[in-house]
Amino acid sequence: MKAASIWQPLIDRLDRCEAAGKTFDFWLRDDDAVEPTAALNRLLELADRFTVPATLAVIPAGTDERLSHYLAGRGDIGVAVHGWSHRNHAPMGEKSQELGAHRPREVVLGELSAGYTRLRALYPSAFVPLLVPPWNRIDAGLIAGLPPIGFTALSVFGPETGGKPHRTFAHPELTIINTHVDVIDWHGARGCRDHEEIVDDIVRRLDQSGGGGGATGILTHHLVHDESVWAFLEKLFEISAPHPACRWRKIADLINR
């Protein structure tokens, strides 16, 4: 299938939404930021070229003033709390998890509180009270402890309503703002997934959310992008950003909506 025809389903879906007088919200979440790198710079330059706001899930234990200075003055960037150290505490044979039930609850919540405080101090203008659990996994027993720390939103991977994340993580003081489309083939070559499959995932999510529904979250990991990922993101932004039926949103706006 030619590249142009791969993208046609998304173009058609956006055109139908425009004809109906509706819009789709998108947001970009990039995980594992710690310091300025060439890959991070490439991501932010690409996003800036198409006026796409980015949410960086920053690992508190590993970051410092270098990234803080690099991001200073950028109103298009939101900084979320990506656990504490992105360290796996699950035993061998289980899926990787930092925020699981493998350690005392007060220890895990203490680390999250330290991460919240550290990032709020390092990134005063960009910080958002959003928790992004490493590996998109968090034990349900920790949820009630997040609002007292200051978190008002949680982001994992999957549907916000009707699916497991909603049933498990529902809390009156937390807004669930998930990602839904991952560009990385984690179970294969760990490069970019097939472009046609990613486009199909985006269109499927748009059909599920409906115009004016929940935002569609695109998940990236700048440190492991291959050239195919960069090509995909550039084409996605090129098609969607100027389209009247698409709005790329700041995470702060989605939290406060």
Folded structure, characterized:
By secondary structure, the chain is of the alpha/beta class. It has one domain: Glycoside hydrolase/deacetylase (TIM Barrel, Alpha-Beta Barrel), CATH 3.20.20.370. It has 9 helices and 9 strands. It has helices at residues 3-19, 38-49, 65-71, 105-122, 146-149, 164-169, 195-209, 227-240, 251-256, and strands at 24-33, 54-58, 77-81, 127-131, 153-154, 175-176, 181-182, 216-220, 246-248. Helix 1 (3-19) runs parallel beside helix 7 (195-209).
Q: How do the helices and strands follow one another from N- to C-terminus?
A: HEHEHEHEHEHEEHEHEH
* Proportion of residues in helical segments: 25-40%
Shape: globular
Poorly predicted spans? none
Proportion of residues in β-strands: 15-25%
Q: What is the name of the CATH topology?
A: TIM Barrel
Write the layout of secondary structure elements.
Layout: H1 3-19, E1 24-33, H2 38-49, E2 54-58, H3 65-71, E3 77-81, H4 105-122, E4 127-131, H5 146-149, E5 153-154, H6 164-169, E6 175-176, E7 181-182, H7 195-209, E8 216-220, H8 227-240, E9 246-248, H9 251-256
Parallel strand pairs: 1-2, 1-8, 1-9, 2-3, 3-4, 4-5, 5-6, 7-8
Helix pairs in contact: 1-7
TL;DR of this structure?
The protein is α/β, with parallel strands linked by helices.
Short descriptors:
alpha/beta, TIM Barrel
